[in-house]
Design brief:
alpha/beta, four-stranded mixed β-sheet, 464 residues, 56% helix, single chain, 8% strand
């Protein structure tokens, strides 16, 4: 009802009934030839999933929370969600017992009841998500209730916290939403690692605390994803630093969009995972900080330590195994493009090693995060010449992945382990694997192109 009043496209429909929502949803799914899922058997909630050309439509059918529809609406989270209309063929009046329409017009987010957060603490996160998505102001009483009862999130199932938090990251203005979460005292509950990041100062070129830097990188990450995404506008591309990304990465824009469109479990997106990686990319710095001459600080191995910490946090959020691995790998390798940009030339061997170490497409995410990290570090002090070179290096990596994958990223081996054993008279063992890996690097660098050259290479390497 809320989205219909706002003129937003309908992606889900919530139906309430005095009967059993599960059985009604099952019958509806059978009639429509759609998928059916039981969402909450105890509360009698079922879901119907309709596949349409314009996208999936989710229909959730739930039993009244109370004796009547009015009781059901009053038991909901926010007044803008406590709206209903009868399913009739004619335009039906809006049922609005808590003046949610007035709140919608005033762009105000207000709780249905003072104890709504205490009754379900995930509503604290949902308040921030709806505020960002619908551009609503969180009312003072609602803010007070969140500060008072939001700490109860620690008692909520991790999966429910994960779903609301990832929805915030996948929504509009994720950095702004994180600032609101922080102001309401919720960030430390979801990401306890943030507390150590707040007051940690960094040496130049960083001019902000680690937490401020992280929020700035999160904002720039969102901007980078928008500028390569289908929603890009001339306004977006004209922002400082983003125009060069458009110029150098546009040949791979369709490839990048396909990469970002790959589905993850439970409706989570590649965009959400990259933004989570941006949020955690420097999480290892507090544990690795050391002071050197002139008051400067260093963070040796913060990428490796951060990867371990990111893995643990993603596991605590109950992300899937593949999601945990992806985020951890992006965090671990987020410094690699910068290191490559400092080299006189980026060789085929270096490109191969980069994608080999990142694994499973994470290298592309690393490239995108590297752009956001650079912009989030320099701020308004952008050196155009250095930035041009940096984007060119990232474009070279991305181009190799999408245009030269067979040659430079995943070269098919010209020899097998059996071939090497026969040619060199070696026994089975790790040396065979080492020679195969050296051969892959030689192929990626263009040193070896034929089977004969491969045999000569492994003989020289094996006898060296």
């Amino acid at each position: 009802m809320r989205d219909a009043l706002l003129g937003r496209p309908l992606k889900d429909i919530d139906l309430a009934t005095p009967g059993d929502g599960l059985s009604i949803a099952r019958r509806l799914a059978d009639d429509l030839g759609a998928a059916f899922y039981p969402l909450d058997a105890e509360r009698g909630v079922g879901r119907v999933v309709l596949d349409r050309p314009e996208g999936r439509l989710f229909v959730d059918i739930a039993r009244f929370r109370g004796a009547t529809l009015a009781d059901d609406l009053r038991a909901r989270d926010f007044t803008v969600n406590a709206l209903a209309a009868a399913l009739t063929g004619d335009p039906a009046p809006v049922i609005d017992p808590l003046e949610g329409v007035a709140d919608l017009r005033a762009r105000r987010l207000r709780l249905c009841a003072p104890n709504a957060i205490a009754a379900d603490p995930t509503r604290a996160l949902r308040a921030v998500r709806l505020s960002a998505a619908l551009k609503l102001h969180i009312g003072a009483e609602t803010q007070a209730a969140i500060r008072r009862d939001g700490a109860r999130l620690v008692d909520v199932a991790a999966e429910r916290v994960r779903d609301e938090f990832m929805a915030i990251l996948q929504g509009p203005q994720p950095a702004g939403a994180l600032r609101v979460l922080d102001a309401l005292g919720l960030v430390d509950i979801v990401l306890p690692e943030v507390d150590a990041m707040r007051g940690l100062t960094q040496s130049p070129p960083h001019a902000e605390t680690l937490w401020e830097h992280t929020l700035r990188v999160l904002d720039r990450m969102d901007a980078v994803l928008r500028v390569i995404g289908p929603e890009r506008t001339d306004n977006t591309a004209a922002q400082a630093g983003l125009g060069l990304i458009v110029m150098q990465l546009d040949p791979y824009r369709a490839d990048l969009q396909a990469h970002l469109a790959q589905p993850w479990p439970d409706g989570r997106t590649a965009r959400g995972l990259i933004l989570l990686s941006a949020l955690l990319h420097d999480v290892g710095k507090p544990a690795t900080m050391s002071r050197v001459a002139n008051g400067r600080v260093r963070f040796i191995n913060h990428d490796r330590v951060g990867a371990t910490m990111a893995e643990a946090r993603c596991q605590a959020l109950r992300l899937s195994r593949n999601e945990v691995r992806r985020v951890a790998r992006v965090v671990q390798h987020h410094m690699r493009p910068m290191l490559l940009a400092n080299e006189p030339v980026v060789t085929g061997r270096a490109i191969y090693r980069f994608f080999r170490d990142a694994k499973d497409g994470a290298g592309v995410d690393v490239c995108l995060l590297a752009l956001a990290d650079y912009l989030g570090t320099v701020g308004v002090s952008l050196d155009l010449e250095d930035w041009t070179h940096y984007v060119a290096v990232v474009a070279q990596l991305v181009g190799a992945y999408f245009r030269q994958r067979r040659e430079m990223v995943e070269p098919p081996l010209l020899l097998t382990g059996r071939d090497i054993k026969a040619a060199l008279g070696l026994p089975a063992g790790p040396r065979i694997g080492e020679l195969l890996e050296a051969l892959r690097e030689a192929q990626a660098s263009g040193e070896v192109a034929t089977r004969e050259e491969a045999l000569a290479f492994v003989k020289a390497a094996g006898n060296g």
